[in-house]
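Notes to self after the call with IL:
- keep both proteins in one doc
- input above output, always
- annotate only the second one for now

Protein 1:
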Amino acid sequence: MSRVKVLFVLMLMVSVVLAACGNNNDQEVSNEDSNQDANQDVGEAIELDMWIHQSGEAETEFYQNRIAKFNEAHEGEIKINVQVVMDDGGSSYNDSLNAALVAGNLPDVLALDGPFVASYAEAEIIAPISQYISDEDKEDFVDSILEQGSYNGELYSLGAMESSVVLYYNKEIFEAEGIEAPTTLEEAWTWDEFIDVAKQLTTEDRFGLNLFMNYGVGEWYTYMGAPFVWSNGGDLISEDGTTVDGYLNGPESVEAFEFVKSLFEEGVVSLTPSETQFEEGKAAMALGGPWIAVSAENAGLDYGMMPYPYSEVPKSPSGSMAYAISSQTEYPEAAYQVMKWMTNEESTIGLSEVTGMPPSRKSAFESMEEYNELPKKIMRDQVVSTAHARPTTPAYPVLTDAFAQVFHAAALGEDPKGILDQQVQRVERELRRFNQ
């Protein structure tokens, strides 16, 4: 998951201006571009450039193998030339995209971090795909994938994998303490139950909970922490996307950040956990993503999964890398065929097996037996029933940084309301750029 920094916001400002300046030229060639697929010489393969983000070795190899199979299956029709682009967990991948936009050589198909779809769409880096996807295919994607991929009523992106945050627990510690873990969404702990158990599990040499604060002040805090607001009946931005005042700093949000603050005040969470605190048994529970299951298994830990704790209504995180087609591609229909291939049932199942991330398609869930039984059934149920996409707004880079700053401040014991009011002013200034 990319931790996009403020530099991306500045680059987007440049991108929007450049895109606006180029509208007249784009209009002059639009009719020609729309006919490029049809005018391609018979027998001559359409060549497309595709960017994928650098990831773990196994994941990157999977992408390359799937693309090789696409080329084999579409020999003489479409050929993909793939480039693996550096993704350092910061702004490098987005910087590369913005540089390509400025130079006018965006790839035809690109990977992007799902929560930033609106920013890319507003900057005219990506093009809508609503006209290409069938209703039947669209229906097979879980709702959160369609939610994160949509902006202003148009669908722009599709993901091959989803994600979630579950409450992991150390089975040995729970058994010793006589604590029974919930096994269904209906049994999920409320905030009060959650903090009571965390306090019970906290000892001199063990924390009750790990929130992975070592990941740094960035996208992780919003991804992991926003459900505290949503489950309390709050939101980060208005439904029409025009304001955060009264939402990000609304009473439900303030109460949610106060709860986060209390976790640290009670001493159940460390501000500086070790990289493997949960795997080493130094934390009895961990609110983490699917990758924690992989590291826990590698460490030989006997662990379980529980649903995300809630206040009023169960909510859980969602969102991951997705695919989109470039606004500059001459062959949008062919580019969509690549997207369709990389997000079909076979791709989503294979990617899930390689990464441990839940698939983005309902049919894939039905085909993967491990998601029909514990512990992964918890993850599946959250993706299908309680997943909530992060806000689709072009101001998201600033909004998510604001959320992360408040979350960090609450963890440090500062007053959430005061920090929220300050951050709201900052996000409102950014929103005005898009509301004029």
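Protein 2 (the one to annotate):
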Amino acid sequence: MAEEIRAEMVANVWKVVATAGDTVSEGDTLVILESMKMEIPVLAESDGVLRELAVNEGDVVQDGDLIAVIE
């Protein structure tokens, strides 16, 4: 079953660490968001394959926006 990872706040995508097709483990950093001069890592919440990465560096995400899909 696919797991969607969504933004929990308004933030800028500061750095993309993973790419679609990567095998990830729970706790791996996928992207790093920046909000109010703080860096917030977005972590994989389960083991699997990163099927979709829906953001690019420099994007602005809103609360609830899709960041990634892990299967």
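Annotation: The mean pLDDT is 96. The CA atoms of residues 27 and 33 lie 16 Å apart.
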